[in-house]
Design brief:
three-stranded mixed β-sheet; Rhopdopsin 7-helix transmembrane proteins; mainly alpha; 3 strands
Length: 309
Amino acid sequence: MDNVTFVRIFTLSGINETMNYRLTIFSLTLLYYCVILFFNISLVTIIIVDENLHEPMYILLCSFCINGLYGATGFYPKFLLDLLSSSQEISYEGCLVQAFVMYSFACCDLSILAVMAYDRYLAICRPLHYHSFMSKRKLSALVCFSWLTPFCIFSISIILTSNLKLCGSKIQKLFCVNWIIVKLACSDTDTVSNNIISYATIFIYVFHGFFIIWTYMHLIRTCVRSTDDRIKFMQTCVPHLISLVTFLVVIVFDLMYMRFGSTDLPQSLQNFISIEFLLIPPFMNPLIYGFKLTKIRHKILWLECVCII
């Protein structure tokens, strides 16, 4: 480790093994990023423009897609620049900002998924009270909760990290991660506050997970009794479940590997593991909801017909 106490520049060394194919990777990554932008912006635009879609489920979906754009934009532009650059460096401030974006994006996704699960629980299990529980005011509060909770938590975490004296400047990843920056601290005693915040964050989002499990236990129990509820479950809950399972698998896999994984794996495989949550959910979520939710699918088909004519 370099004997540095005032680090102003970090080196992202995860990209080194891919430099022989950087033009190919740049072209594919740029195309993929453009597709993510197109799918998510299209879905957000459809929901905003069509007043028939100004319902809680679709507003939450709009928030979900905006978060996908937020996370993707926090990674892909910098990665594309690194592929064209001879040195993959990022400023100290830029690294903290990117770490904040990556963590808040992932946790905001889980918060929105928890609110979406609550919305489906009310719609199917308590339909007579749905509009009173999901009024515009309460929906606004839930959307704010899903965004502000991770923003507040990781603002504190990043502020604590910014006060650390660092004895290293090399990050073995394609992007900045708060946990890795903390590991570069000169003294372990300085990182106690960071560890407390990390465990508090884990507790909060594990609670999110248990809440989602609780809602689906009630959803499944209700849907078993009624054919209409089963149809509604298949139409509106299956996309949510697919998004949830995909998100949890890629995030848990990445976190487990980051904490306990072997560094003997090829760097290219380590890179793929670390960016799965930026590759799959932002691309897959608008596709799943676009094709599965009837109102949005009909709107997309109508727009295609208009464009053809």
